[in-house]
Design brief:
elongated, six-stranded mixed β-sheet, alpha/beta, 14 helices
């Protein structure tokens, strides 16, 4: 019996030795291992979150490369793990499909490969964690995609806060951020139950869904008010500032959860730059009314350009942003002017004639009797009687259910895209 056992052990040892010898004589690697040795994957290097975990190994006829961060935040690490498991499951399914498939004999060896990697980047008060995975079939010799293969690509982005927590839309966009996005999508007749699939790049937030995606400016959403597209809205606009009532008007609109558009003269900005910055930081829109209120229709091309460019620059110097809209003095803009100005010339549908009547009650009457949903109302912010009229009229309009929006918001929620044309809020682009 002992002799039999010794014989079996000897045979097994010999078989092992022969197997190892054959393994090394044949090159010492399976096709997947040879691919990993000859064409290793290089992981991304832009990473600064938690502790990195890396692994690479052969799996069946395929090879796997994995890199991911451990953050010590349980919920975040669980979300990363779930996404990694999604990738592994998809790869396992591919290997099983290939195992069961009838593949024609060929001299070319094809190797399935899974690559799971990530990058991070700082963006304001949070870190963007970009996770991605790719499943592909490579030609062993060339280490390129095999003919006919379409790689499976998947990516997701987590916005990570100071405690390594995953931020939702409100964490990125501020209070009511998700509600704002929902209302903006509602205008486009897009309703989403799940808004967790989004990516961030610079100032752009992209919401992904089955039929496509939509992009939003993060800064614009943060600055925007919470607007219900199903309720009436009006854009109250003010020319000829900034001036002594700028801050008071900004406070008034904030009181009613509203915004307005201020078309300012470049020559006044240096004197009232702090007031203009205050208005902008309250979420209001700043537009250009040219530098010195010239009638552009009778100016040379050089003068028109100077009026526009000087205003853009002085506004930027004051608030750190360029004007988003323009209203030419007197609304004048012939074909020559329209070829030069950048974007739509914003006119109006309700003219209060405040500069002419100089009467608070008449201005109030104009606003309340002529304003309807979607209108743009023209006023001038430099007059005390206008400020008093707005203070009274805005309360009545609010009681009537009106929302106070910027011109750009009004165009967005009314579905108007008047780039390079004239917009007068009569619900038509001329």
């Amino acid at each position: 019996m002992k002799r039999l056992i010794r014989t079996i052990v000897a045979v097994a040892a010999l078989a092992l030795i022969l197997g190892i010898a054959i393994y090394f004589l044949l090159g010492g690697n399976s096709p997947a291992e040879k691919l990993m040795k000859n064409h290793p994957y290089t992981f991304e290097t832009t990473k600064n979150l938690g502790t990195e975990r890396q692994d690479s190994y052969a799996l069946g006829e395929g090879c796997v490369y994995i890199a991911y961060p451990k953050t010590k935040n349980k919920a975040t690490d669980k979300a990363i793990e779930d996404y990694l498991n999604e990738a592994k499951t998809a790869f396992d399914e591919l290997l099983e499909q290939r195992k069961d498939a009838d593949r024609a004999e060929t001299e070319r060896i094809e190797i399935p490969r899974l690559v799971f990697d990530y990058t991070t980047e700082k963006s304001g008060n949070y870190t963007l964690l970009n996770l991605s995975y790719k499943i592909e079939i490579l030609d062993e010799e060339a280490a390129v995609c095999a003919p006919g293969d379409t790689p499976k690509l998947s990516a997701t982005t987590f916005c990570i806060g100071k405690e390594n927590e995953i931020l939702d839309l409100d964490g990125i966009l501020g209070e009511n951020g998700e509600a704002k996005i929902r209302n903006m999508l509602k205008v486009k007749k897009i309703a989403l139950d799940d808004m967790t699939h989004f990516t961030v790049s610079g100032d752009t937030l992209t919401i992904h869904f089955i039929d496509g995606s939509e992009e939003f400016s993060i800064d614009a959403v943060k600055r925007a008010n919470l607007i219900d597209p199903d309720k009436p809205m009006v854009a109250l606009t003010f020319d000829d500032g900034p001036g002594g009532y700028s801050k008071e008007l900004a406070d008034l609109f904030e009181k009613y959860n509203g915004r307005a558009t201020f078309f300012v003269l470049g020559q006044l900005v240096p004197t009232y730059n702090e007031s203009l910055k205050y208005v902008y930081e309250k979420g209001n829109e700043i537009g250009s009314h040219t530098y010195s209120h010239k009638n552009l229709n009778i100016q040379t091309e050089a003068t028109i350009r100077k009026e526009l460019e000087d205003t853009k620059q002085v506004i930027y110097d004051a608030i750190g942003a360029y004007p988003t809209v323009i209203r030419t003095p007197y609304g004048n803009a012939n074909s020559k002017v329209m070829e030069i100005i950048d974007g739509p010339n914003i006119l109006w549908s309700v003219d209060t004639l405040d500069w002419s009547s100089r009467d608070t009650n008449k201005i109030i009457s104009k606003i309340l009797n002529e304003t309807s949903d979607g209108d743009i109302v023209l006023m001038h912010e430099i007059y005390g009687f206008t400020f008093n009229a707005v203070k009274s009229a805005i309360k009545t309009l609010a009681d009537r259910g009106y929302q106070f929006v910027t011109v750009s918001e009004l165009m967005q929620y009314k579905g108007i895209e008047p780039e390079g044309k004239i917009y007068s809020a009569d619900h038509q682009v001329k």
